[in-house]
Amino acid sequence: MITVYTKDLCGFCHAAKKYLDEKNLEYKEINIDYDPEARAFLKAGGHKTCPQIYYRSDILVEGGYDGLSTLSKEEIEQRIQGFDLEHFNFDISYKL
Questions:
Q1: Do 53 and 64 form a contact (C-beta atoms < 8 A)?
Q2: Which of 27, 39, 50, 59 pairs as cysteine with 7 (C-beta 3.0–4.6 A)?
């Protein structure tokens, strides 16, 4: 699932959530003003602004809302599929 890290009084955070809603993409919001672990996670990743848009533990799109708004629903879904493939075990060897 997409995770949107947000802050209170953040216009870009609101815009990112609205964009995902308009594209009918499911997401979970984590407000870092109320979640110190999430804030620490973002800081450890070098982030200084919100929103940050992740899929699982990977950044889905660089640039927050500005980066997100350049992507179509299909492009977002393709990125998600790429992450899913990275986590799939491709061991198809035949074992005797």
A1: yes
A2: 50
